Amino acid sequence: MRGPVNHSNTEISRKGSAASPPHVHPYLVLTICCASLLLVGMDVTIVNVALPAIQLGLHASLAGLQWLVDAYTLTVASLLMFSGSMADRFGRRRVFEIGLTVFFAGSLLCSLAHSIGGLIFYRVLQGLGGSMLNPVALAIVVNVFPNPRERVRAIGIWGAMMGISLAIGPVLGGALTQTIGWRSIFWINLPICVAALALTARFVPESKAARRRAYDPAGQILALAFLLSLTYAIIESPQDGWTSATSMVLFAVAALCMILFLVLELRCREPLLNPRFFRSVPFASAIVLAVLCYSSYAGFLFLNTLYLQQVRGYPAFQTGLCTLPFAVMITILAPVSGRMVGHYGPRPSVVAGGLGFLLSTLLLMPLSTETPLPQLMLAYALFGFSLGMINPAITNNAVSGMPLAQAGVASAIASTSRQVGTALGVALAGAIVSTGRARGMSFTQATHSVWWMMTACGVIVLLFGWVTTTGWAQRSTSKVASLFPSAESTPAK
C-alpha cells in the first residue's frame, strides 16, 4: 500500500542543493507562512461563536448568518486554484503580500460594518485575500526546504497548524465576543497581518514557477456560478419555498453550470479541474471525503453554537469553552493520524474516524433542551477525533492517488473541496432547520434531520475507508498515471 506523498507544484530540482538558498532562514519563513494559515483557518471558525451577538447587533436573519459564514468560504473555495496559478506566474511573495494586504483591509472593514449586508460584502473581501494566502504560502514553504527530509518535517508542522487554526477559533472567538464585543474577532487579525507583511518583505524570497499553467477563465466563471447559484438556492429556499419559481430556476442554473463546466474541462488543454482525475478511486474518494467531512463539521459547529447560546442560554465564552474537547482532540490526533497514514496507509485512520463520526452523531440525535452537558462534551470530543483522524488521510489519498507531476494540483483541489464542503454544510444545516421551524418544530427538533444526514455521511466515510484501499482502487491510480506523462521539475527562478 502506498504511503503519503509530499509534493507541491513548486519547482525544485531533483539535483538541487540540500541546503536553503543563501540569506534565507527556512524556519522563520515557515513561521511567517504558518501565521497566514492561522488567519485563514481561524476566520472560518472564529465567527461562529459570535453569530448570536452579530444577529442581535445587526438585526440579522438566520439566512443572513449563513451568508456571513459562506461569503468567506465560497470566495476562498472559488479562487484558491486561480490565486495559486497567479502566484506561479507573477511571483509567490508578491501575491502573498497582496493577499495579506487585502485580508487586512477586509478585516478592518468587517470590524466597522453597521449592517449585515455590508458585513457579508467585507467577508467576501476577506475571502479574496485568504485565497491568496494558503496555497501560495505552502508553495513558498516547499521552495525554501529543498532537503526532502526537512521538507517533510516542515509540511508536518504546516498540517498541525491547520488543525490548531480550526480548533482555537471558537475558544478565542467566544472570549473576545464576551469581553470586548463581536467586532474584536476581526481586530485580532490586524496585528498578525502587519507583522506578517513586515517579515515577508524582509525574509521571504521571491520565486516563480518554471512552467506556468495556462488560464482557464471560462472554467473559473462556471465553477463560481455553480457554487453561488447552488448555495443561494439552498439558503433562500426555506423562505421562498423549495418548489418556488426562484428556487427551481436557481437549481436549474446550478445544474446547467455543472454540465457546461464538465464539457468544457474535458476539451480544455489545461483545465482548471481535469475530470479525468476522478478516474483514480483514491483521488475521487479524497474529494468526496473532504466535502462530506467538512460539510458535516461546518454544519455541526454552526448549529451547536446557536444551540448553546440561544437554547441553553450560555454566554459566548462558555460556548467557546464547550468546544474545547473538539479542539483538543483534533490538535492531538492530526499529527498522530499523519504518522499512522505513513506507516499503515489511510484505511485505519479513515475507519477509526468514520466510527467516531457515527458515535458523535448518534449522541446528538436525541438533542433537546435537557441534553446532559457530559453527553454533549463526549459528542464534541468524538467529532474532533473523527476530523483529526480523517484529515491527513484526505490529503494522502488526493496526492498519492495521482501521478507525482499532478500532485500539487491534486492537493489544491482537495483544499478547495474542504472549503466547498464548509460552505455547503452551513447552507444545508441552516436550510433544514429553517424548514423545520417553519413547520412548527422547535430548534432542537429541527436539528434532528441534520444529525440523521450526518449519520449517513459517517456510513459513507466507513465504506470509503475500506473500498478505496483495495487492490482495485490502487490499480485505478496506475491507469490514470498513464494519462498524465510525468515531467521533471526544474529550479524556480
Outline of the structure:
The protein has 493 residues and is mostly helical. It contains 18 helices and no strands.
Task: Write a structural description.
It contains 18 helices and no strands. By secondary structure, the chain is mainly α. The chain folds into three domains: 194 residues, Up-down Bundle (Growth Hormone, Chain: A), CATH 1.20.1250.20; 51 residues; 204 residues, MFS general substrate transporter like domains (Growth Hormone, Chain: A, Up-down Bundle), CATH 1.20.1250.20. Helix 11 packs antiparallel against helix 17.
Number of domains: 3
Secondary structure: number of strands: 0
CATH topology value of the largest domain: Growth Hormone, Chain: A
Query: Runs with pLDDT <50, length 5+?
Result: 1-21, 487-493
Rg over C-alpha atoms, rounded to the nearest angstrom: 22 Å
CATH superfamily of the largest domain: MFS general substrate transporter like domains
CATH architecture type of the largest domain:
Up-down Bundle
Count of alpha and pi helical runs? 18
Mean of the pLDDT scores?
82
* β-sheet strand percentage: under 5%
Name the helicity range.
over 70%
What is the N-to-C succession of helices and strands? HHHHHHHHHHHHHHHHHH
Looking at the structure, what is the overall shape? globular
Report the structural category: mainly alpha
Q: In angstroms, what separates the terminal alpha carbons?
A: 36 Å
Largest sheet: none
Tell me the name of the CATH class of the largest domain.
Mainly Alpha
